[in-house]
Design a protein that fits this description.
disordered N terminus, 21 helices, mainly alpha, two-stranded antiparallel ribbon
Length: 510
């Protein structure tokens, strides 16, 4: 296929040369810190006497003297997911040209209100309201943070920087458990009020960061603000070469004009027609795939799960697991740069399936509450969390944010996150029944279900997920518009070149 340039020498920028955009994405990634921190906090609350004295009931047979009802346990998790679904509808209502910065500011404001409601009153209704509002905040954070990061990052580093959201989620969970490890011994309200108060840091930090940052160049192009788009590239990428800047602006503008010409208006049904249907199904599937991995099960119920399995020092073991998982998150940064999305996701999904099946087998073959069984469960859960952080989490987030078309990106990602929250709600609704001693009391046998879902995810990836590594967002637009088959994505030569990553052009003819 004839390209736009006859012959050229290309050198991709290095991590160090792109340190400014990496640092900016690292800061924006802290939007996901709140989600990870909150998941760990709620997991810990369910095993803290200070929290259960108010929202639980006395139980002399329990290791901590208190227990929580299945209803309360279910609602404090599921209402957060319902809030996330509400946020998805809000993202769609804002429209395809919604400012990424405004979306993040909305998340900050609602987050502060949600935390205040949970800290102050002691009624169960106030707790439920706070959980719902925090879910809305998380939903806006999830949607607009990954959209912002994917739209400012160079093509060859996009997967790496978007994958940082998994690192921030794990870091948030680790900090949450670390704080609760020291406050859990308290029998008063401050045992859970202190961990909640720490959450103020994220919306405050994010609000200050956003004051110093422009919106994304692709957002400005969609609004017809050409000069603002140039300024955005200068500010976020640190590029001073106007030839490079104008080349990228022209490429983004041409791709946007082509989309507008082909699709005059962005309507909800556009997601389910023509080439966009395929993109929507991939985006939705990857978002739901986050829940299908089983990470919400271990993130939301790890402490409770360890307590019920009578594993000693549950907070400490969860912290150890999260600390080890962070090494996987850090390894994902170079892995996403040098390995393809498909092999990473396929291999890690199969390994995750084996670890989940291993939990169920350890429960069936071992003696309940025996030390060896407990050690096996801890080892397998840590292995799963590391594998998820290394491959599944980062890759699924990257594909979710980069696959939708420019005119539908914020809406598609928002609804995809809403679906993730729906399935997350289903998980949080059902998990207590599987784990709680007053219900099915499956314990680690619950791993059989998540082992099967990981295998299903691997099969779906094999048949439907194309390789997007190293492709610019404009190249992906072209590949999907031309309906290129999944297996031809890596080798197909597009009309668009990766302008934003080029440092040297030789014999360039436009």
């Amino acid at each position: 296929m004839e390209g736009m340039y006859e012959s050229r020498k290309v050198r991709l920028t290095t991590f160090w040369e792109e340190r400014r955009v990496i640092f900016i994405c690292f800061l924006i990634g802290f939007a996901q810190f709140q989600y990870g921190y909150d998941s760990a906090a709620v997991s810990g609350f369910q095993s803290m006497a200070g929290f259960l004295r108010i929202f639980g009931y006395p139980d002399p047979t329990s290791q901590i003297g208190y227990q929580i009802t299945t209803k309360v346990q279910r609602l404090i998790q599921s209402l957060m997911n319902l809030g996330g679904l509400t946020a998805a509808l809000g993202c769609y209502a804002l429209g395809p040209r919604a400012s990424r910065r405004v979306g993040l500011w909305i998340a900050c404001a609602i987050g502060i209100i949600a935390v205040s409601i949970q800290i102050g009153p002691t009624t169960i209704g106030a707790l439920y309201a706070g959980r719902f509002l925090l879910g809305i905040s998380n939903g806006f954070f999830l949607t607009f943070s990954v959209t912002y990061m994917s739209e400012i990052a160079p093509a060859h580093l996009r997967g790496s920087v978007v994958g940082l959201v998994t690192f921030h989620t794990s870091l948030g969970a680790l900090i949450g458990i670390l704080i609760e490890n020291y406050t859990s011994v308290e029998l008063e309200r401050k045992s859970y009020q202190i961990p909640l108060a720490v959450m103020y840091a994220i919306p405050v930090l994010m609000s200050l960061v956003l004051l110093a940052l422009p919106d994304t160049p692709r957002y400005y192009i969609s609004r017809g603000q050409h000069d603002a788009a140039i300024y955005s590239i200068k500010k976020t990428r640190g590029i001073s070469d106007m030839n490079r800047i104008l080349a990228e602006i022209t490429d983004i503008q041409n791709a946007w004009d082509t989309e507008v010409e082909l699709h005059k208006e962005a309507r909800l049904m556009d997601m389910f027609t023509g080439p966009d249907l395929r993109r929507t199904m991939i985006t939705f599937g990857c978002s739901i795939g986050q829940t299908a991995t089983g990470i919400l099960f271990l993130a939301g119920y790890s402490v409770y799960f360890y307590v019920q399995a009578k594993i000693g020092s549950p907070f400490v073991w969860v912290m150890v697991g999260l600390a080890i998982a962070l090494t996987g998150n850090l390894g994902a940064f170079p892995a996403m740069r040098f390995f393809g999305r498909r092999p990473l996701l396929l291999v890690c999904s199969v390994i995750s399936a084996l670890t989940m099946f291993g939990m169920g087998i350890a429960h069936d073959k071992g003696t309940s509450f025996a030390p060896k069984t407990g050690k096996a469960l801890v080892a397998l859960s840590i292995t799963f969390t590391w594998v998820y952080g290394f491959g599944q989490g980062p890759v699924l987030w990257a594909i979710t944010s980069e696959t939708p078309s420019q005119r539908l990106r914020s809406q598609t990602v928002g609804i995809a996150n809403g679906l993730n929250f729906v399935f997350g709600w289903l998980c949080s609704f059902c998990t207590p029944y599987f784990l709680n001693p007053t219900a099915l009391n499956w314990g680690a046998k619950y791993g059989y279900i998540w082992g099967g879902s990981n295998l299903a995810l691997a099969i779906w990836v094999f048949f439907f997920i194309p390789e997007t590594q190293g492709r610019s967002l404009e190249q992906l637009d072209e590949l999907f518009e031309k309906r290129v088959p999944t297996w031809k994505f890596p080798s197909y030569e597009t009309r668009h070149h990766i302008v934003d990553a080029d440092k040297v052009f030789e014999n360039r003819t436009v």
